Amino acid sequence: MTTDPTPLDPRALRDAFGCFMTGVTVVTTLDASGKPLGFTANSFSSVSLDPPLLLVSIANSSINLHSFVSGKGFAVNILSEGQKDVSATFARPSEDRFASVYWRHGPVGSPLIAGVSGWFDCTLEQVIPAGDHTILLGRIGAFEASAAPGLGYHRGAYVTPAATTAQLPAGPDVVISAILEAEGQVLLVDDGRGGLSVPMVRVGREGVHAALASLIASLDVKAEPGSIYAVYEDAGLGTQHIALRCPASLGRTAKGAFVELTAEGVADVTDPALRQMLQRLAEESRMGNYGIYFGTHEQGRVQRIAEGQN
User: Fold this and answer.
1) Where a domain ends, among 137, 167, 197?
2) Whole-number mean pLDDT of the chain?
């Protein structure tokens, strides 16, 4: 004997569907008289690349159902993060939902809304009854994608990932400084401000090791990654600096030149914090007693280490 399955709670089922984060679209078409019609939908999906197909679904209770299933086509407008008001306009009853938005006819003919993240203009390929909704299968005739991030929807609320991320405090840029030492000399390069600097590079997604290796390779100098000499933060520039002593060999380089590692030799270094660091290195090299600096570009402390531990 079989028993009928327990009826599902529609509200709970809707909430469960809401666990899946989606984008927000406005689906548009023209009625028989050429009047633009549209509704807000997150039931949108790509179907096929060859042929180019997509689908949306419309409630059978919609007053616009007949126009969509009997029309020549429809457009899917993917709303951008700043278009919550457009979503709300097309989600509630209105005599003319298009009165407050700028739109134009798409290449295939359906209304396209300005400022969207992307749009697809389609001919109607197939109408598929599906319970209390009807699936509209569209063949894409034209489309466009913009750089505007799309508006999201999750658990009954709008989601704006790009705008939210932009408001989060960002960490400092990490900058690697390569102190290339060879026989009492250090490599200095033009800093672009009329002075000198040690070679530097910002660390990207590739990480510190790869950034340093790429920097050394760009200088066309024989050198090896060395030990950390200073770690300091420049709050004004929003940068975190890591300076490394890198043993090198004298010779011609693609950029800059080796100068004597003395207070006089590094006097033309523009950045005061960097110049002070090199002057400290010159003094420590003379005494053979090295340390690692921790702090900011203005003040900090030096932790002494034995040269043999470098």
Assistant:
1) 167
2) 85
